[in-house]
């Protein structure tokens, strides 16, 4: 039977005694779902899985979702590749703190990554526990954000005019495949949301995707979002994840923010990713 051991950091737990080449039985699926509700990031080392097994594992936590701005790999509608070649000089992908596709009307519940080619140095993923960040906010700030709604948008990030659009000179040589000319997405979500699985409030805001607060002057909103951000990524709410080849990591986008880190120039890094949307979680 699989077992779950917390990392001892602000979030995250390691799952042992599980082989994702085999279907996950009902009891293990329940353990994994409650583990994700409790720890927000699950790490499953030493897996040797193909794309279908990655998709099957993902459905333990919901339904497979398509990605609005990634071109999927050949042979799957649901898997994207996070890739950086050894000699690539484009800006690091996803280096800003975010919750995946938070601009959608119904954002994904979780994201899963499988490490295929992992450099010997660098490339850690940082996770910031947004339940803890909310709990530790000064009471005055909690009161200030009560009932406020963040305005999420892709306009500065993806598509025409966005940082990852091929019109940017810095994007030359990008090995990841982004959709180029899709229409922008705009979405509104409360700055504080209660998690359906664990019942705890969590902050749901990022500097990249949230460009305003509904009904608030832009300058005032920006100041508030920046102040909130400092609490959201405080050192004591962050877990730094060190990758190994064959590792599967799944995180709850309702509970954590995450970001990529560099430090592996000269090494190729390849991970495969699924995005998990609300839906019938299967025994799989
Ligand atoms: Fe991400």
Quick overview:
With 284 residues, this protein is of the alpha+beta class. It contains five helices and 16 strands.
Account of the 3D structure:
- It is a single chain.
- The chain is 18% helix and 27% strand.
- The chain is of the alpha+beta class and 284 residues long.
- It is built from five helices and 16 strands.
- The strands form four sheets. Strands 1, 2, 3, 4, 5, 6, 14 and 16 form an eight-stranded mixed sheet that branches. It has a three-stranded antiparallel sheet with strand order 13-7-15. Strands 9-8-12 form a three-stranded antiparallel sheet.
- The model has no long low-confidence stretch (mean pLDDT 95).
- Strand 10 and strand 11 (201-203) form a beta hairpin.
- The protein has one domain (3-277): Double-stranded beta-helix (4-Layer Sandwich), CATH 3.60.130.
- The protein starts with a strand and ends in a 7-residue tail after the last strand.
- Residues 94, 98, 100, 258 line the site of fe (ii) ion.
List keywords for this structure.
18% helix, single chain, Double-stranded beta-helix, 16 strands, binds fe (ii) ion, 5 helices, eight-stranded mixed β-sheet, alpha+beta, 284 residues, three-stranded antiparallel β-sheet
CATH topology: Double-stranded beta-helix
* Percentage of residues in strands: 25-35%
Number of helices: 5
Radius of gyration: 18 Å
Cα shape = globular
Please write the CATH class name. Answer: Alpha Beta
Mean pLDDT across the residues is 95
Number-wise, the strands total: 16
